[in-house]
Amino acid sequence: MEKKYKKKVYHLRKVLEQKERNIKVLEHNQKQIKYDEGDTVYIMRTIGDDTNLDINVDETLYLKFDRSINMKNRKSTYDTCTKNKVQILKTIHVNDLLTIENCVKKKMANYVIRKGKEYFKCSYNQLVDVIAACIEFYEERIISKKLDDNVKGQSRPTYNFNKNKVLSIKIISSGDCDNDEYEDTET
Questions:
Q1: Residue 73 in contact with residue 18, Cβ under 8 Å?
Q2: Residue 15 three-state SS
Q3: 99: buried, middle or exposed (CB in 10 Å: 19+, 13-18, 0-12)?
């Protein structure tokens, strides 16, 4: 394939990936998730237009950890302040909100982005491990560290591009528009 066509194909793939991410964000914005009331700690992140919603749990992200008695109202407050709805990655019901919150904040002090806020620059696994340790110590119980069911991507690879697949594009003249063919072939 000529060099200029390879560049065009590469650019078209990037545009397609961006559009697919935008569609997923729009679908995320339409979701209505029901949360149980009660003392809850949670992990969330804000969503931009180009955010990949299928997270890699080992990837460093900007995550918010906080507590709430009514998760539905708390999430609504965040959703009205951002362009896209926030993504709640994990909710955990606890017996003592303040104790668990303080424990997590102290253990995560080195990851704080801005003093006085509960935003951390860390991976999901790092944060959930600390939360689990605090709950195990203060409440003597083990929690699941998996993402909530409404979140995809628990074991997503860092990238899933198949190097062995080649996109072939047939260039046609304007009179042959009915025979527009695109095919994927293995090399």
A1: no
A2: helix
A3: middle
